[in-house]
Amino acid sequence: MSEGKALKVRVTFVIILVGIALMFTAVVTDHWAVLSPKVEKYNDTCEAAHFGLWRLCTKRIYIEEREPGKEKGCGPISLPGEHNCSYFTHFAPGESTEIFEVTTQREYSISAAAIAIFSVGFSIIGTLCVLLSFRKKMDYLLRPASMFYTFSGLCIIISVEVMRQSVKRMIDSDDTVWIEYYYSWSFACACASFVLLFLCGIALLIISLPRMPRNPWETCMDAEPEH
After folding, report:
1. 55, 66, 68, 144: least CB-packed within 10 angstroms?
2. Which long-range contacts (CB under 8 A, 24 or more apart) does 69-72 make?
3. In this structure, are residues 52 and 24 in contact, taking their beta carbons and an 8 Å threshold?
4. Sign of torsion over alpha carbons 199, 193, 90, 43
5. Per-residue pLDDT tens for 108-158?
6. Integer Cα distance of 127 and 4 in angstroms
């Protein structure tokens, strides 16, 4: 691998590592979406929720009286209150019934988590390929690495879309108490990681391709080999 090509690979790889860090942050944290029910009573507590791929958290928040005539949700989630978190409860039947009342929501949650695991796996394999490519005469591994990073980005954005559909169905369903929602910073990390992994995966593929002929009469086979 030439010095110029190695420099391009290293710069691209650093950006990819940022994307992987964002992807891991999104996968392991529980602030993908924040849900808020309608407040029936003021000067009382209400229960808001935020969740990720693996963990569901509820928070009891004290709500003071607000302007009459306006339908307000419980929150914001940053207000102090009693916090209760549990892992995998939204996967098990009969658990968290107020939040995941519809069976489809459980299927969405499991699907989003499974696809995210594929994203993590692709990124790990891609990283191993890039590290091995710096050895002598092993730069051919850059091409499969680029494809693994691209697949990782596609998997995480599919997981994002599955989660988005899950939240939308919960809000639209008559079986749940939620009237308001917004996507939080874990969701933003997942979207940002898709952009970095997908674009840098394509960039790495372009960098790894053989040098294009410089003259019209020169073919790729005639070009000087890279060292």
Report:
1. 68
2. 71/38, 71/179, 72/38, 72/39
3. no
4. negative
5. 778 888 999 999 999 999 999 999 988 877 788 899 999 999 999 999 999
6. 20
